[in-house]
């Protein structure tokens, strides 16, 4: 593994970040800087914490800590999408799709955390 870009969990998180960012741009204008901004930041945090953790991979505990932060931001992202789904029923289908994808990412991240705990060699 040469880079964090080789991690499947990173690739999925980055792809979802891009999709989520685009999704926030269709929110009502008054929501772009409120809930839209929170959603963009939390989805960015998911991917950014994977990258930062990988940068500290020589310190296993730090790597795990940042992966846990990523997982927590993933849950926050799902929560923001749940709010959008209720507040804007016309966006429910796309929000549900993203929620499912973030659920998959959360499970993938959890499995990766477990792998790092058990198998990662520093």
Automatic annotation (TrEMBL):
Residues of the signal peptide: none
CDD domains attached to this UniProt entry: 23S_rRNA_IVP_like
NCBIfam families for the chain: four helix bundle protein
Domain of life: Bacteria
SUPFAM superfamilies noted in UniProt: IVS-encoded protein-like
Pfam families: 23S_rRNA_IVP
Protein name: Four helix bundle protein
